[in-house]
Design a protein that fits this description.
This protein is an alpha/beta fold. The protein has helices at about 5-20, 20-35, 45-55, 60-65, 90-100, 115-120, 130-145, 160-170, 190-200, 210-220, 230-240, 255-270, 280-285, 290-300, 305-315, 325-330, 350-355, 355-365, 460-465, 485, 495-505, 585-590, 605-610; strands at about 70-75, 105-110, 150-155, 175-180, 375, 380, 385-390, 395-400, 425-430, 430-435, 445-455, 475-480, 510, 525-530, 545-550, 555-560.
Length: about 625
Amino acid sequence: MAQRLNSTLEAVTDRIRRRSEASRSAYLEQMRAAGRDGRHRAVLSCGNLAHGFAACPGGDKQALKEGGSINVGIVTAYNDMLSAHQPFERFPGIIKAALNEVGAVGQVAGGVPAMCDGVTQGQPGMELSLFSRDAIAMATAIALSHNMFDAVLCLGVCDKIVPGLLIGALRFGHLPVVFVPAGPMRSGLPNPEKARVRQLYAEGKVGRDALLDAESKSYHSPGTCTFYGTANSNQMLMEIMGLHVPGAAFINPDDPLRDVMTAEAARRAAAIVPGGAEPAPLAEIVDARAIANAIVGLHATGGSTNHTIHLIAIARAAGLLVDWSDFHDLAGVTPLLCRVYPNGPADVNHFHAAGGLGFVIRELLDAGLLHEDVLTVSGRGLRHYASEPFESEAGVTWRPAVEQSANTDVVRPVAEPFSADGGLKVLDGDLGRAVIKISAVKPEHHLVEAPAIVFETQDDFIARFKAGELDCDFVAVLRFQGPRANGMPELHRLTPALGALQDRGFHVALVTDGRMSGASGKVPAAIHVSPEAALGGAIARVRDGDIVRVDAPAGRLTVSADGFAARSPAIAPATVQAGMGRELFTGFRQLCGPAEEGALSIPGLAEAAAERTAETV
């Protein structure tokens, strides 16, 4: 039986509502205006409509011509280079067949780009990664702008792709939207072994052949990578926000249940259209309660720090103003229920087998740590998601989630958590504001105070590590890595080297205005430092030898140096953001807002962010 709603969850949700009153009201009015005309194909001219169904097969064409059928738009992030998205090649056929069975039509409305951070890690292409989210949002809007659709299915999984799809879809929030995942690949080389080989390679103890062999055994087939990074955190978020068919997140692509769930998602989209018996427009699903639930889910599962940016951007697309204080306060009351790599040795397949998201959602609901009375694509009430699906003659049926975890080393009940809080902290101090995730960091490393060594590129850090110049206690200050500087690339090339130094007994930490997402691990990292160096933030005034204190327990990020405040900030290195398409994103860099406002480069949404009051209510 659920307890009364946790008082902090209630207070944070109310704070978001009050802070967002004007922007949320404006958003909802825009969505209501978009929906008032009913089925929008009715406003299309005969020429418009004929173009829209010209390529349809005979039965679908006739249905759309007569005007009585539901038409579901499919926005797909399919490509066959991303392992996580390769399974989507088959999904449109499954979806269209399921829709035809219920008298509806499906059309692929458009495709969106889908890049893989695993491929671009440490490469120039990574500087497009964050901005790809906003490009995906715009591509989603283009796909849906034809005004042909009564509902939407979004096919996407990975890092920037799901946030981009959701940001774009929220501008069509008068329509119901169901997200359709592809699932994780089967378990390969255990993630801790992969990390061990990476560290050995960084130390020069094994060669490239051994490293490539380990990586190939880790990433070996269609499906999402099996560690709990941003991609799998995305799937948790779509589930806990009520945007998946319940239990869809972590079914493997080759499991027969995956196709059954995909067909069910199609049928569900047709069932919740405006004017039907169970209307569920996206704008009404993604409200302050859903965003608060998402933040709680992130903390309870030890999810990716990238969502301290992406969830804020998603919220702003729905007229909701969220900041890091909301994350910080909810982290303080949310127990850590999961140990999934990099927060433990298990992968998402082990997590799913041990009870998975159905178990976690049930535990959080019963503890009063989630809003239960929310609208979802499966109806009113988040309790729908405290379940697991099974194939049946009817297609799919759901049973209540397991009562007990099958492996308490992987997932635990609220009464016996791995830790009392979610491990995400907001740091404040004279270096600015940052976030740090310590769920995988040993307690003895939660506070590091040491001389700064300043770097302005990852390559500089790696070169000095290989030269043996970093065998000491230090705080690596890597700056000019924010969105205005170079697009805020991931900095995982540093992880093996920092881990090796920590293993040698040195006290090390990272402070950066860049990103170090859900694949980060055992080394404390104060990330997303804001204001960033490119905007003259305090991180640009740090010099070698300054004493930097990264204090996660106290929530402080400080520097001790004579005359620090009076120093002139360093000038950004004279690099040319060109090549590998980077010159095409100059406008994105110039427009991009701060990390705590979602690092948005879409002016309309950034302006909504700027309307928030200066004081935290």
